[in-house]
Amino acid sequence: MRSPETPAPLHAAFDELAEAIRPHAGNDDVGLLTETFWAALHGLTMLARGGRIPSSHRQHRLELLLAHFTR
Q: Of the candidates 1, 68, 59, 67, which has an alpha carbon nearest to the alpha carbon of residue 29?
């Protein structure tokens, strides 16, 4: 669900991401799938920035995430 407090550029970014995910959504709700993908990317980013996960596997994590979201 969209929050009115969210800045317009983030809404625009979400919409772009949703359009990229749409062809891979199948019967899933595109909005929910996009939220989930966004949350996964955000989580990986924050964990990496905080040093909570090793940076040595960053590329592999992204590849895994993309592979599972674009089947």
A: 1
